[in-house]
């Protein structure tokens, strides 16, 4: 069971090795890719600087890529079939009423400092993930545990009433509120990852955010890799952990994550042999890669939706007629053809069609007549009197292109003016969490294969 599989879940990623033969000939200096192939170092384009690597405070893909190298949950998923495989737990059983799981942990599971990973570590970590002061946006993922939601809301204060118990060092019993067919899928999500108690409390309180426990030299994790370097906005390097329970199956010696916001820059680095994998390329080059280098171009659908978020606490976005008018005036087919260009599917429902057999009935179609009528009913006929709004997005060329297309659509269809605001990833997340925005770019990626999430 190899852990390099955890880096194979990209929407659009390019595998480097065949292209190396096309671009590295005649270069006197060895490229990163050539060095990496020889020394088993993976050079990975990570799109942006992570918000954090603490699994109980993050919500973004740049963070998740790194967390999957540094931590491991009770189970893992096969990258192609999504079949559940052992992680820290070597086996498990389910009660006849389908509400109680008993997990048996690997006796040789170790933290990167050599200490054993125990069932009590999971109890501690899940309690931490549910503490309101953590501000964990994924706390709801643990609500399937008996009394977890009540604990998070403060209705109960005794965590022993929550459905997770360490029977001994290597036996964890989890009681659910009701039968949950997809529960095992949740356990590979970062909100369920364990953290090292002594390290957490060495640098702050149990529920304190932003302490230095996640920095090189301080960090202790239980994954196949351990943190070596974090040079802000330059590189995050993780190296193979010799204490990982399945270390013999990990061939990579190191992974270097590069936070490259500009897609054109990342694509140039890929062509120059500085990256093994890029998860994105500029939209205007997708057709060229598909035509000229099909063997190294992999475009696969994600269980995800790209959307805009309205701040309903401010006017005029507190009016459902305004929000609906804005939604109905977006031509999604045109966005896919003019801006996205990567085979994306227009989204008329929030949940992607045929998600584990489910397709939503409610739709938001393209309907200009209805959009104009609703805007007029809200007091803005032909856009008259409508205040200028700001559309916020994190730095990314695709986000800018889509925003520019939508900006023009709203101007032409509704005669309203929208300004664009391009922000660094961390600033963007902070403003969004504080509701300090009007319209914000957002994305939802399924955390498990079920429409309920």
Q: Which descriptors apply to this entry?
A:
globular; 453 residues; 2 domains; alpha+beta; Dipeptide-binding Protein, domain 3; 4-stranded antiparallel sheet; 7-stranded mixed sheet; Dipeptide-binding Protein, domain 1
Explain how this protein is built.
This protein has 453 residues and is an alpha+beta fold. It folds into 2 domains: 48-254, Dipeptide-binding Protein, Domain 1 (Dipeptide-binding Protein, domain 1, Alpha-Beta Complex); 304-445, Dipeptide-binding Protein, domain 3 (Roll), CATH 3.10.105.10. It has 14 helices and 17 strands. The protein has helices spanning 17-23, 32-39, 61-70, 119-129, 148-152, 183-186, 197-202, 263-271, 283-292, 320-328, 332-340, 368-377, 397-414, 425-433, and strands at residues 12-15, 41-45, 75-77, 84-86, 89-94, 100-105, 164-168, 171-175, 225-231, 235-240, 254-258, 277-278, 297-299, 304-310, 389-394, 418-423, 439-445. It has a 7-stranded mixed β-sheet with strand order 9-10-11-2-12-1-13, with helices on both faces. A hairpin with a 3-residue loop joins strand 9 (225-231) and strand 10 (235-240). Helix 10 (320-328) runs antiparallel to helix 12 (368-377) and helix 11 (332-340) runs antiparallel to helix 13 (397-414). The model is unreliable at 1-27 (pLDDT under 50).
């Amino acid at each position: 069971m190899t852990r390099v599989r955890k880096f194979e879940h990209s929407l659009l990623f390019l595998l480097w090795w065949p292209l190396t033969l096309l671009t590295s000939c005649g270069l006197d200096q060895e490229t990163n890719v050539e060095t990496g192939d020889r020394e088993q170092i993976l050079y990975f384009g990570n799109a942006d600087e992570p918000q954090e690597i603490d699994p109980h405070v993050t919500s973004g893909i740049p963070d998740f890529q790194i967390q999957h190298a540094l931590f491991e949950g009770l189970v893992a998923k096969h990258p192609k079939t999504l079949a559940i495989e052992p992680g820290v737990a070597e086996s498990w059983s389910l009660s006849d009423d389908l509400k109680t799981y008993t997990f048996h942990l690997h006796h040789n599971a170790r933290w990167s400092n050599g200490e054993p990973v125990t069932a009590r570590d999971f109890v501690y970590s899940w309690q931490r993930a549910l503490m309101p002061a953590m501000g964990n946006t994924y706390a709801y993922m643990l609500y399937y545990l008996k009394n977890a939601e009540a604990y998070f809301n403060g209705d109960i204060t005794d965590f022993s009433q929550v459905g997770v118990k360490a029977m001994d060092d290597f036996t964890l019993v989890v009681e659910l509120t009701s039968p949950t067919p997809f529960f095992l899928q949740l356990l590979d999500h970062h909100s369920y990852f364990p953290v090292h108690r002594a390290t957490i409390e060495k640098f702050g309180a149990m529920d304190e955010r932003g302490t230095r426990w996640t920095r090189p030299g301080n960090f202790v994790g239980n994954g196949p890799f351990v943190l070596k370097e974090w040079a802000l906005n330059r590189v995050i390097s993780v190296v193979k952990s010799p204490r990982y329970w399945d270390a013999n199956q990990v061939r990579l010696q190191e992974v270097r994550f590069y936070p490259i916001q500009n897609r054109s820059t990342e694509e140039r680095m890929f062509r120059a042999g500085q990256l093994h994998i890029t998860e994105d390329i500029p939209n205007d080059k997708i057709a060229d890669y598909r035509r000229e280098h099909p063997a190294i171009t992999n475009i696969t659908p994600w269980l995800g939706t790209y959307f805009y978020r309205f701040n309903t606490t401010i006017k005029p976005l507190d009016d459902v007629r305004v929000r609906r008018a804005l939604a109905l005036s977006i031509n999604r087919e045109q966005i896919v053809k003019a801006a996205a260009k990567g085979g994306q599917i227009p989204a008329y429902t929030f949940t992607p069609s045929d998600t584990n057999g489910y397709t939503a009935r409610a739709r938001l179609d393209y309907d200009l007549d209805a959009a104009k009528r609703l805007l007029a009913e809200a007091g803005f006929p032909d856009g008259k009197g409508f205040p200028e709004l700001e559309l916020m997005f994190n730095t990314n060329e695709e986000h800018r292109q889509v925003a520019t297309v939508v900006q023009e659509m709203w101007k032409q269809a509704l005669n309203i003016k929208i300004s664009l605001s391009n922000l660094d990833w961390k600033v963007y997340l902070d403003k969004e969490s504080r509701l300090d925005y009007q319209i914000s770019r957002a994305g939802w990626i399924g955390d498990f294969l079920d429409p309920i999430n």
